[in-house]
Amino acid sequence: MRARFAPMPQWPAPWRDRDFRLWTSRRLQLLAFCSLAFHCVVAASFSCALFSLGGCTPAPALAMARPAAQPTHVKPNTNQHPTKSTRQKEPSQSTLLARACELGSPRGCNDLGVLYEKGEEVERDAARAVVLYSKACDASLPIACTNLGSMMQTGQGTDKDLAQAAVLYTRACDQKDMLACNHLGDMYATGKGLERDDGRAVELFNKACDGQQANGCMNLAAMLQEGRGIDRDTQRAAKLYRFACDHSLGTACAGLANLYLAGDGVPNDGVRALALFNRGCELGSATSCYLLGVRLMKGGRTTNDKMRARQLWRKACDKEHAEACAQLATSLKNPKQPRRPNAPNPASP
Question: Residue 228 in contact with residue 198, Cβ under 8 Å?
Answer without folding.
Answer: yes
